Amino acid sequence: SQNFSISDERGPVGKYARRMMLYLSIPIDEDVQQTLSFFEKIEARRGGLDMLGSVDASFRFLIESFPRLLLLSEENDMKPLIEFLESIGIPKDCSGKVLLLYPPIMLIKTEEVKRRVAAALGKVSVVNKDSGKVLLKYPWILSPSIQEHYSRIVSLLESESVLKMDIDHAIRRWPLLLGCSLS
Length: 183
What we know:
The protein has 183 residues and is mostly helical. It has one domain (2-179): Transcription termination factor 3, mitochondrial (Alpha Horseshoe), CATH 1.25.70. Helix content is 60%, strand content 0%. The protein has helices spanning 10-22, 30-43, 55-65, 74-87, 95-101, 110-123, 128-137, 144-159, 164-173. Helix 2 (30-43) runs antiparallel to helix 3 (55-65). The protein is globular and about 50 Å long.
């Protein structure tokens, strides 16, 4: 359970979770739905989402929401994932933030996570060293529903004469745009 410990980042993790929920207004896939359910269980507790960074407060709800996590091997599943996250610029002490904000990432094989990161971040012209920064801001970028929505956003903005370069820059700076409805 040490991978989930973010003792000095309690507030920020809860703040990110709240912000991600607030700016989500598109149809979502099962992974994001399960994550929202996990957030809602924690939010209903005393201390709410600010307790998200606390192992004691969130671990039970994490397992309740994602019981398959109990089947993971630290050596074969978690270690390669954490090493990959480090390789794209997410400091080891921040990897727990990504895992808590998008727990389904732990249930995806590391090779698939690598593929999704390359696909999602390649679309917005993120160079490898910046991948971690974008993922820390918005781990839901790995969700299939968010990735599908990207092309709709680009089409709409290009139809309004916004340059692709500017669209990519905006998404890198404020990836929450990817969860916003176009209507």
